[in-house]
Amino acid sequence: MNLAYYKDKYPRLGIDCYIEDSAIVKGDVTLGDDSSIWPFVAARGDVNHIRIGDRTNIQDGTVLHVTRKSESNPDGHPLLIGDDVTIGHKCMLHGCILGNRILVGMGAVIMDGVIVEDDVFIGAGSLIPPNKRLLSGYLYVGSPAKQARKLNDAELAFLKQSALNYVELKNDYLAQG
Fold it and tell me: Where on the tree of life does the source sit, at the highest rank (predicted)?
C-alpha cells in the first residue's frame, strides 16, 4: 500500500480497508471500516485533514484534497466524507463535506465549502461551485449543478446498495491477497 507521512501525520485505516497499490494516501487521512480506495486515487491530507467514513468507496482516478487554514478562513476546508458513499471514477473533491448515502457520478467536481446532505445523487460531470448546499433526497445535475428532482424510493435504496456492492468487491480483492 502506498501510505506515506506528511510531516508528523500518517494515514489511519479502519478494519478491513482496501487500498489499491497504485493509489497514494498521504498525511492526515483517516479511512473508516470496510472502505476502499481504487486505482490511481490521490488523497493528500497535507495542509488540512481528510476523513472518510465506513463502507465508502473512492473509485479510480479520483483526487481528494483540502484547503489550508488562513487568516480569512481560520479552519480552512478539510474534506469530510460520510458513511456508505460512492465516489465515481475521476472525480475531484476539494475541501467539501459529504454526508451519508451519497453517489457522486463519474467526473464530478465538488469545490471548497460545499455541503452535501445525506441521501443525494450527483450526476456524472456535474460541477458543484464553492459554498453551495445540496439538500437531502434530490438528484443534482449540470455545470453548475442544479436540483433536478426528488429521488424515488428505489434510488434512495440504491445509495446504500451501491456502497455495499463495493464492500463485497473489496472483500474479493482482499481475499486474493
Answer: Bacteria
d(CA 32, CA 98) in angstroms, rounded, equals 14
Alpha helical stretches, state H, the chain:
153-176
Task: Tell me which residue has cell 471548497.
Answer: 112
Predicted TM-score of the model (pTM): 0.96
127-156 pLDDT per residue, tens: 999 999 999 999 999 999 999 999 999 999
HEC letters along 62-84? CEEECECCCCCCCCCECEEECCC
Domain ranges across the chain: 3-176
13: cell is 485505516
- The chain-wide mean pLDDT, for the chain, equals 97
Asked whether the beta carbons of 114 and 132 are under 8 A apart, the reply is yes
The pLDDT value recorded for residue 177 is 77
Q: What angle do CA 120, 123, 156 make, to 5 degrees?
A: 35
Cell, residue 175: 481475499
Domain at 3-176, CATH homologous superfamily: Hexapeptide repeat proteins (2.160.10.10)
Residue entry with cell 463485497: 168
Task: Count CB atoms within 10 A of the CB of residue 127.
Answer: 16
pLDDT tens digits for 46-83? Answer: 999 999 999 999 999 999 999 999 999 999 999 999 99
